[in-house]
Design brief:
By secondary structure, this protein is of the alpha+beta class. It has helices at residues 33-49, 65-76, 82-91; strands spanning 13-16, 22-28, 53-59.
Length: 96
C-alpha cells in the first residue's frame, strides 16, 4: 500500500467517505483544459465506486502567471512568513 508523502488534512478539499479503502489525490488547476477533462473521469470513478472512494483535490500552481500570483497571494494571507512570500510574488511577472 502506498503512503502519501503529504498526508490528507482538514485543509484539503475532500469528497467521499473518510474511511474509504481507496483515496485518490488529484492535483489540479481550475483554468487547465486537461484538468477540465479529468473532472469527468474523476466523477465517473466516484459514481462507480461510491463509498469505497475518497477524493482529495489539491490546488496545483498553474503555469499562467496571473493565476500563480493570485494563488500565492491567497496562501500568504495566513502565513507568518508573509513578507517573505510577498517578495517572491513580486518577482513573478504580472499578466499583461
Amino acid at each position: 500500500m502506498a503512503v502519501l508523502k503529504v498526508p490528507v488534512t482538514p485543509d484539503d478539499h475532500i469528497q467521499g467517505n473518510e474511511d474509504a479503502p481507496v483515496t485518490v489525490v488529484e492535483y489540479g488547476d481550475y483554468e487547465c483544459p486537461h484538468c477540465g477533462i479529468a473532472y469527468y473521469i474523476v466523477k465517473s470513478l466516484q459514481k462507480q465506486y461510491g463509498r469505497l472512494l475518497r477524493l482529495v483535490f489539491r490546488n496545483f500552481f498553474a503555469k499562467h502567471p496571473a493565476v500563480r500570483r493570485r494563488i500565492l497571494l491567497e496562501l500568504a494571507r495566513g502565513l507568518q512568513f508573509r513578507k517573505r512570500l510577498l517578495k517572491v510574488v513580486g518577482r513573478i511577472p504580472k499578466h499583461t
